[in-house]
Design goal:
Blueprint lengths: L19 E4 L7 H26 L14 H10 L5 E3 L5 H6 L4 H8 L33 H15 L5 E6 L6 H13 L3 E7 L2 E2 L2 E2 H4 L16 E5 L3 H16 L4 E6 L17 H6 L5 H11 L5 H24 L43
Parallel strand pairs: 1-7, 2-3, 3-4, 4-8, 7-8
Antiparallel strand pairs: 5-6
Helix pairs in contact: 1-2, 1-10, 1-11, 2-8, 4-11, 5-6
Length: about 375
């Protein structure tokens, strides 16, 4: 197996556990960078709001999960990655797709189930995929992305490449077997992967405190002597700084667990009214809104006027409107493509028959030539 010349010696057993920590300081940053964060976060927010509207209008089908309230985490994480790094995420991935540079129209077309979508209309909201952007899914099965991301990291390590893998999941995923198996094998083999837990406090409708023996999820890395950190997911500056540290560790052959704490503003999915939240909790969500917090920060620094903010918002709305128009103009995939992409390459005995068609050509009746 190829090894990195820059990788430090990694202890596979013995010695002290690697340090896990909370990151509480706010890194200094210039206002131009803050403005860039804000523009990107506004676009994600308006895209997701329009997605929710299209869902209620029955333009989008299937399951649909939004990044509302997690924009700072999305922007911070993606700012730390290079274009050559690989991203695996769960089904709450629209904002990540935007941040990886995929055209908003192609993303919206996929949500609409149209052939110009990133997965040609067959994936939908939960299965965005773009090899050029190195976004390798969108996974509907909870934790389904973890073993695959670990395998991708193994491939990078085998080739000795400079890339790293970022694997994003929700807090509920940390209670399944694939989480522990993936972290364990990544630690044993020193793979270039950063596991990111976006902790919004709820696994669907169950709080982390009720479902996790260790609710401070970053501490779980200690079981694998893996470095880890917990960061304020409402601050894109802090998230980016933490993610850069994590990626630097991963590229050196030491995998990393990063926990970002970021409450979602709405229910688990578009159809979830979130009645499990009390009135007090619901009222407090406005205070944890990362978009409003960054806007206040910019106002306090005299870096953004109300007119500037309105112009940024108008531009985001225009981009989203264009994306919707693109999606609406895109054709539905043809029924003849129903079995396309079942496998990456053709395989023997792969059936391409449509529902109701016979598996085999009927045999003739003896002596008559007639078919059964």
């Amino acid at each position: 197996m190829a090894t990195r010349t820059s990788a430090p010696a990694v202890k596979k057993s013995g010695g002290a556990p690697r340090v896990s920590r909370k990151l509480t300081t706010r890194p200094a940053v210039d206002t131009e960078r803050l403005l860039d964060y804000y523009r990107r976060m506004v676009l994600i927010r308006r895209f997701e709001e329009r997605t929710a509207r299209s869902y209620t209008q029955a333009e989008i089908g299937g399951y649909c999960h939004l990044n509302l309230g997690e924009e700072a985490t999305v922007v911070g994480l993606m700012s730390a990655m290079t274009p050559h790094d690989y991203l695996f995420t769960n089904y709450r991935e629209h904002g990540y797709a935007l941040e990886r540079g995929i055209a908003p129209g192609r993303i919206m077309a996929e949500l609409y189930g149209r052939s110009d979508g990133v997965s040609k209309g067959w994936g939908g909201s939960m299965h965005l995929f773009d090899m050029e952007a190195r976004l390798l899914g969108g996974y509907g099965i909870v934790g389904g992305q973890l073993p695959l991301a670990t395998g991708a990291a193994l491939a990078i390590d085998y080739r000795g490449g400079p890339e790293a893998v970022v694997c994003i999941m929700g807090d509920g995923t940390t209670n399944i077997g694939a989480f522990h198996e993936s972290l364990n094998i990544a630690a044993i083999w020193g793979l270039p992967v950063v596991f990111v837990v976006v902790n919004n406090g709820l696994g669907m409708g169950t709080t982390v405190e009720r479902s996790s023996g260790e609710p401070e999820i970053y501490r779980r890395a200690a079981s694998y002597r893996m470095p880890s950190a917990r960061v304020d997911g409402t601050d894109p500056v802090a998230v980016e700084a933490a993610a850069r540290t994590a990626l630097e560790s991963a590229r050196a052959g030491v995998p990393y667990l990063l926990e970002t704490v970021s409450e979602r503003l709405k229910g688990h999915s578009v159809v979830d009214p979130a009645k499990y939240r009390g009135a007090e909790v619901t009222a407090s969500l406005a205070e944890s809104d990362p978009l409003a917090a960054l806007l206040r920060r910019l106002h306090e620094a005299d870096a953004l006027t109300d007119d500037d903010a309105a112009a940024i918002d108008a531009e985001a709305l225009r981009i989203v409107a264009d994306a919707v128009a693109f999606a609406e103009a895109s054709p539905h995939p043809g029924v003849e493509t129903l079995f396309d992409y079942t496998y990456a390459t053709p395989v023997p005995n792969d059936s391409r028959r449509l529902p109701g068609e016979p598996l085999f050509e009927p045999a003739p009746f003896p002596g008559t030539g007639a078919r059964a």
